[in-house]
Design brief:
Elements (H helix, E strand, L loop, with lengths): L1 H73 L5 H38 L1
Length: 118
């Protein structure tokens, strides 16, 4: 009985030490995850801020050009180049808007994951 008890206790001691090591590793990974989420959140927020500025500029340009082109259409003086430029500006604005929305979703997702981790 003593022959079995001594090796069993040694195995239990080694296993307990291994669990502590594993717990430390898990704690380090959780801390790294929190840091990574914070970094990504700050990057996304900065990019969203820049994209918002670009979107506002694109909206103003599009509104001005739309007004101008509509006046030319009514006077039957709209050129194909003008109409093409208007369409391209709309496409640019839509692209910026899509980027803005995806960044907003990314930020919401990071916030959701951060609240789950707490």
């Amino acid at each position: 009985m003593k022959k079995i008890l001594l090796p069993l206790m040694a195995i239990m001691m080694l296993t307990a030490c291994g669990e502590t090591k594993t717990r430390k590793e898990i704690s380090r990974r959780k801390a790294a995850l929190v840091e990574k989420q914070e970094t990504e959140l700050k990057k996304a927020q900065l990019e969203l801020w820049k994209t918002d500025s670009l979107l506002q500029i694109a909206n103003k340009e599009l509104a001005a050009m739309t007004t101008e082109v509509e006046l030319h259409k009514q006077a039957l003086k709209a050129t194909p180049e003008e109409l093409t430029a208007l369409t391209r500006l709309r496409m640019k604005r839509d692209s910026i808007r899509t980027q803005y929305e995806s960044l907003g979703l990314k930020i919401r997702y990071i916030h959701k994951k951060q609240s789950e981790n707490k």
